Amino acid sequence: MSSIKDKIDLNKVPQHVAIIMDGNGRWAKKRNKDRIFGHREGVNSAKAVVEAAGELGIKYLTLYAFSSENWSRPKEEVEALMSLLVQGIRDELDNFIEKNIRIQVIGDLSKLQTEVRQAVEESIEKTKNNAALNVVIALSYGSRDEIVHAVREIARKVKEGDLDIEDITQNTVSEHLYTSEIPDPDFLIRTSGEQRISNFLLWQISYTELYFTPILWPDFKKEEFFDAIYNYQQRERRFGKISEQLSK
Ligand code: IPE
Ligand code: IPE
Ligand code: MG
Predict the structure, then answer these.
(1) What pTM was computed for the model?
(2) How far apart are CA 211 and CA 227, in angstroms?
(3) In this structure, which ligand is nearest to the CA of 35?
(4) Structurally, how many domains does the chain consist of?
(5) Looking at residue 91, which CATH number applies to its domain?
(6) Is residue 119 part of a domain?
(7) pLDDT in tens, 23-55
(8) Which residues does a 6 A CB cutoff place in the pocket of ligand 2?
């Protein structure tokens, strides 16, 4: 079977793809199931996309798994999401090691239950020397919280005399975010038809290409990911310049 994958130029894949994995609840509702059923299938989509990103040689894949605002959901749903996460990470750990995948996490981990934090920390520790694909899980993540955290760190350094105000640059801000060692996303995908950012990577996406698809996350598998990457490759990123200035 021919695939859109064959049309993708492997020399021009985005270095970093970020995904807002949305629409699990609506997918389940359409099938008269409860929301957790949608989250469970959503885990399979995450696995598929990790595999697809690996096949294309993408270096960084950031998955928005749970936002700081998602703590306000019903308790049973939060618990189900956390246990799916722990189970998913445990089930996949050997696969990550075998495929040379490094797990990183961004977010406020202090809010997580001990069991969840331990599972996350174990996967980070056991994959820390891997280098093929970096899977960054945004967990208990909120971009405004992240920026506040960075501002506090910078202010502390100024107060203690370790940093001169005049030396604060864009790099200083970037270096104090959770993503300090991760390049900015080239491409951001949001599923489920919503066209909003929902407090995700606000600083980091200032020049990211955005892609919104009506497909619900549980229906988003490898082919849909390849479609999105192909779409990215048809775009011209100008970064404020004009077309003629870009080296082809
Ligand atoms: C995304 O699906 C998963 C998380 C936000 C954790 P939703 O649960 O938001 O599904 P919808 O948007 O209600 O359909
Ligand atoms: C964004 O989805 C967060 C994640 C996908 C983890 P939400 O479903 O929480 O976003 P809103 O509330 O509809 O903006
Ligand atoms: Mg949603």
Answers:
(1) 0.97
(2) 11
(3) 1
(4) 1
(5) 3.40.1180.10
(6) yes
(7) 999 999 999 999 999 999 999 999 999 999 999
(8) 20-22, 64-67, 70, 194, 196, 198
